[in-house]
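[Discussion] Sanity-checking designs against the backbone

I'm trying to build intuition for which residues belong where. Below is a structure token string of 122 positions. I'd appreciate it if someone posts a full sequence so I can compare it with mine line by line.
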């Protein structure tokens, strides 16, 4: 149960979405990963790909076997939902820290597509 899961942070919005305590438009979920619609989309397709396990950001990832497996699962999900969404090109973004624009401190990858993308990002 979420209350007894050491990877669950009761104060964390995305932990609570992963635990289905807060509703979201989930498009894919498995044992390690949840993918849902961003509430304030910045492109026709704007999905958030998160691990169920709480990590504040990509800066908390290590070279442990568990984190390697987690990254593989996250990128497998990213590729899968991009293909399911019919995207030919897309952008994967993860903001690390407030200076980079991170506002939710649970690791997430933005998957953006469905329109031309500018470069560099602002
Ligand atoms: P960040 O700014 O941390 O890189 O990205 C956080 C993202 O979470 C933002 O794009 C924001 O729109 C999205 N977000 C914030 N609160 C909620 C919520 O309650 N539900 C969903 N689905 N997305 C959220
Ligand atoms: Zn969390």
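Best answer:
Here's mine. Compare freely.
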């Amino acid at each position: 149960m979420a209350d007894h899961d050491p990877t669950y942070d009761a104060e964390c919005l995305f932990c609570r979405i992963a635990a289905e305590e807060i509703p979201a438009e989930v498009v894919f979920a498995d044992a390690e990963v949840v993918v849902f619609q961003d509430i304030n989309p910045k492109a026709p397709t704007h999905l958030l790909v998160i691990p169920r396990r709480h990590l504040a950001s990509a800066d908390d990832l290590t070279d442990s076997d568990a984190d390697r497996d987690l990254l593989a699962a996250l990128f497998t999900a990213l590729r899968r939902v991009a293909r399911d969404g019919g995207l030919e090109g897309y952008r994967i973004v993860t903001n690390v820290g407030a200076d980079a624009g991170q506002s939710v401190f649970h690791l997430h990858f933005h998957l953006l597509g469905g329109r031309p993308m500018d470069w560099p990002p602002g």
